[in-house]
ABC transporter substrate-binding protein
Amino acid sequence: MKHRAKLTAVAALLSLSSHAFAANTGIDLVANETPIDTPKSAEAAAKIPANFKFVNPGYLTVAVAVLGSSPPFGLFARDNKTVIGSEADIARLVADGLGLKVKLVPASWEDWPLGVSSGKYDAAAYNITVTKERKTKFDFATYRQDTLGFYVKSTSNITAIKAAPDIAGKRIIVTSGTNQESVLLAWDKENQAKGLKPFTPVYVTDDAAATLALQSGRADATFGPNVAAAYKSKLTGTTKLVGIVPGGWPKTANIAFTLKKGNGLVDAVQTSIDSAIANGSYLKVLDRWGESVEKIDHSEINPPGLGD
């Protein structure tokens, strides 16, 4: 009966919408449905290659995080169809600066790489970390620092996960194919070389499944983008932070607007981001989604990343 009651409580938690908790986060999701616009940058627009063919003429078509994602990166507005979130806002700023309209396409994490490479999307804004491997296929213009957080159930006895030995023997929720998975696998390799117990990765299909796995005791911790987990922790009070790791461990890393390698658009995108930083619209976006802790003062093209 206790187990059933626990699962029922978790299910009730999962059924509550992000809007229902907005007052607890200091993030006004209703107000955040209103777009933040920024002026066209003549310098950025001039850097668009003369023969560049956008997927939809006059639009910047961007794959964004909504499907299987969580706030603040992507979610649907009250009409259940309009995409809002920090990544949607960043995509709009970039498009504005280029003198284009924005077309936001909700996509799964697995979809954006092929979609950008094949020309289905002009770009992706999906909390994507710059990595050495990804730079062989994509061009990047940075717009945020990358930090990762370990979160556990609020009643957990775990007090700290900050280094490789701390994950030994633990079951940790992580998304496949991400830089956070790479960090955990690198730590696990170190641990096993020292004779420590291996960790067990717990792969789930979406945020609801991750919540259920953690709250029901099937996993010990989650490891992923810190701002998303911090938002959720403040929202529900059911998790707590036990460690922060640079996204490019052991080095710092950056989140970046992602484009097909060599398509010529990255210089224009970087200039558009810098224009939004300079005029203040960029910080307005980060502030309203609680991401200003990861702000940058200028955009970089293809900087060193995870694996460099």
Residues 1-23 have pLDDT under 50 and may be disordered. Residues 179-193 form the longest helix (15 residues). The first strand starts at residue 59 and ends at 65. DSSP finds ten helices and twelve strands in the chain.
